[in-house]
Amino acid sequence: MKNGGPSAGLALSALIIALSWGCGGGEGVPPSVAPAVAPAPEAAPAAGAELTWAVPKGWVTETPTSGMRKAQYAIPAAAGEAEGGQCAVFYFGPGQGGDIQSNVDRWATQFTLAGGHPTPAITETMVAGRKVLKVTMEGTYNASTMTGGDAVPKPGTLLLGAIVEGPDSNWFFKCTGPSKTMQAHREEFDALVESVRFR
């Protein structure tokens, strides 16, 4: 009997390969590639985590005038202004200090205009995964002496404030001073807020 030649050999090889795939249960489909694993989201800061921030150049660190203040800074006066500003940072402890809205309302009651109290300008943003509320208002400032403020009413005061949502309580940045001075340092204040991080 004559040999089938190379064509018969190739056909036989193809048949063997096809049968071996069928017996393997794979039905001729190559194994699938495992999908890429998405990176885990950034872990939330633990309760009691300390907040850090970058102090703007030229702001002078002062001894806090109240135990409720975590930090306090003197803000240089703008050109032509006799008085500078002040920035105080508050943290009252786990579960303390009240919610964001009640604090915004309380700040507003410390400012007066001819028609009563000013309406705060509020902007909500996210910084390093944490909600931050920025608050601005202007008028005659009547600071709370309970939290280390000056009892003398100060007309023409601009407040630049920020409330940072923490893992166990909120942190408060309250910066006040003559309107011209605070406007001159507004970009520095914004940079400070953008620098906040929990560790």
Would you give an account of this structure?
A hairpin with a 6-residue loop joins strand 8 and strand 9. The protein is α+β, with helices and mostly antiparallel strands and 199 residues long. The strands form two sheets. Strands 2, 3, 4, 5, 6, 7, 8 and 9 form an eight-stranded antiparallel beta sheet that branches.
Describe the biggest sheet?
A: 8 strands, antiparallel
Please estimate the helix content.
10-25%
Number of helices: 4
User: SS-based structural class?
Assistant: alpha+beta
Task: Tell me what the CATH architecture of the domain at 86-111 and 118-198 is.
Answer: 3-Layer(aba) Sandwich
> Can you say what the CATH homologous superfamily of the domain at 86-111 and 118-198 is?
Mog1/PsbP, alpha/beta/alpha sandwich
CATH topology of the domain at 86-111 and 118-198: Protein Transport Mog1p, Chain A
Supply database-style keywords.
199 residues; Protein Transport Mog1p, Chain A; two-stranded antiparallel ribbon; 10 strands; 22% helix; globular; disordered N terminus
Task: Please write out the topology.
Layout: H1 5-23, E1 51-52, E2 60-61, E3 69-75, E4 85-90, H2 100-109, E5 111-112, E6 121-127, E7 130-141, E8 154-164, E9 171-178, H3 179-184, H4 186-194, E10 197-198
Antiparallel strand pairs: 1-10, 2-3, 3-4, 4-9, 5-7, 6-7, 7-8, 8-9
